[in-house]
TrEMBL record:
Cofactors required: [4Fe-4S] cluster
Gene3D superfamilies to which the protein is assigned, alphabetical: 1.20.1270.30, 3.40.50.2030
Subunit structure comment from the entry: Homodimer.
Superkingdom: Bacteria
Protein name: anaerobic carbon-monoxide dehydrogenase
Amino acid sequence: MKNHEKSIDPASQKMLDKAYAEGIQTVWDRLEAQQPHCGFGELGLCCRHCNMGPCRIDPFGNGPKLGVCGANADTIASRQLVRMIAAGAAAHSDHGRDIVLAFRAAAEHGEGDYKFKDEKKLLALASEFNIPTEGRTIQEIALDVSDIALDEYGMRGQKLQFTKRAPKVRQDLWTSLGVDPRGIDREVVECMHRTTMGVDTDYVNLTLQGIRTSLSDGWGGSMWATELSDVLFGTPEVVKGWSNLGVLSDKEVNIVVHGHEPTLSDIIVFAARDPELLKKAKEKGAEGINICGMCCTGNEILMRHGVPIAGNFLQQELAIITGAVEAMIVDVQCIMPSLPTVANCFHTKVISTSPKAVFPGATHVPFDEKNAMETAKQIISIAIDNYPNRNQGRVNIPSDRMGYMAGFSVETILGALGGTLDPLLDAIKSGSIRGIAGIVGCNNPKVRQDHNHIALAKELIKNNVLVVETGCAAIASAKAGLLLPEAADMAGEGLAAVCRALGVPPVLHMGSCVDNSRVLVVAAAIANALGVDISDLPLAAAAPEWMSEKAVAIGTYAVSSGIYTVLNSPPPVLGSSNLTNLLTAGAEGVVGAVFAVEADPVKQAGLIIEHIEKKRTALGL
Ligand code: CUV
Ligand code: SF4
């Protein structure tokens, strides 16, 4: 495959050419080396949950139809799907836990490096949970909020707080199905239990547990991550900044923050403003310190501070290949184990910071939350010391960069609308906006980088569908210029007029992957305002280049919340026609929404538009 076929992004194409010229292996080479992928794995027909196996089911010929224990294709495929959901939910929710703990530390000690940047949001949460606020300090109130958050992870078995944000009909549906999540950790543990040898065998019963677990992510762990990150680091407001590898500087110390948790990246942004460090950088011959983001932790600091974003998932190796990165600081999730090897070809230091994610070949500097600012400065110092090692002769920073407007939290959207949802509802009712689609999720080298994200977004806005985005999808749109108000020119007449009146782009960046919880909140608010269920709304979602187990959890809570969700490729379930039918057809009668699988982005848009029009008709619009 030619390099320009691997990505639509000119910056990526150039760095792939450089990788080739210099003999550096990237994710695309490793994908090629893996061909052909294991067919049993692709279909979800292998199991290694016990030592009587590993077993595999022959989907075609007269090979075995049962594992040694007697498990059939339905059981094996659904157990695997449930484990994927559990892993994805665990990732988001464990990220959420770290935010809860940082929040609690701020409540307990007050004087630490984490402060409450948005006390108004904290008070709003307190009132949502009926916590008294009169005559109490912000710390006392925060402690009560953190008690509730900690309980949510436990096993008290009460309904998760944020599920009460869903429309009443949706809550009643979940209760009647028996899928009210009872505790964030509990659901993940129960998934692991029920999918071990000789426990749950029924694919429907297993899928219901998958649904319950995904809800504990979307309306639980992820939502806690978003809400308390906003309290600690500030609720995003409209910001402008730059995207793509062109944000790297040829004269400054370049530090790329990659991973997920804002507890690290947000502090790094402020630590880099320290005059002492700046002085040190100048002594080393640099003109300054340039902090850039990558993937979702990049989205966190992009949303709150307009920090430049160097790229999305498939650009992590390519950023190092520019030869201009002094340090890539990583915490958890979506960090390729290959980074230290790629960095070995250059002066770049990969600095791992989480006790949960250690990378052989990287420099490990454990991030101490209790001493956050000091650790951040220490890490930045390592990068500065590394600047003189940069070989300017091997530096090649692509000039490609693109501006963005972002920061569309629920609060920002309401603000842009003048304080109420009414103008948006009116635009939907009048038909100038046909509906809303969320495009989320990763890159995957099996798909030409960003191609599906961009083709789908363009097709939707052209047809007057407002697009909201998170994760690597949103970064793709930033790089393609879709997050600029001028992109309204690419939108249909109705949507363009609304965007121009409000001064916003037709594609709204709502944050990182945990911030898909913001999309749920908007969906619930619209449904509540119209007095209907989420599944009645002209609303859809897509993950057109997904790769992570987290995306499976997100897709499942979207569908379980009533949102029709389109994937470019299926999770490994096709080996069970019963499970496949349940997910793509049967679920309609259970949760009021289904998954669809379609590889072509223009056809994906067609499916979404068809769905939106069907819902409009049913609502009498
Ligand atoms: Ni959490 S999960 S590749 S960074 S969106 Fe990007 Fe987003 Fe997928 Fe990872
Ligand atoms: Fe085989 Fe059953 Fe063991 Fe899985 S649980 S490895 S299907 S015997």
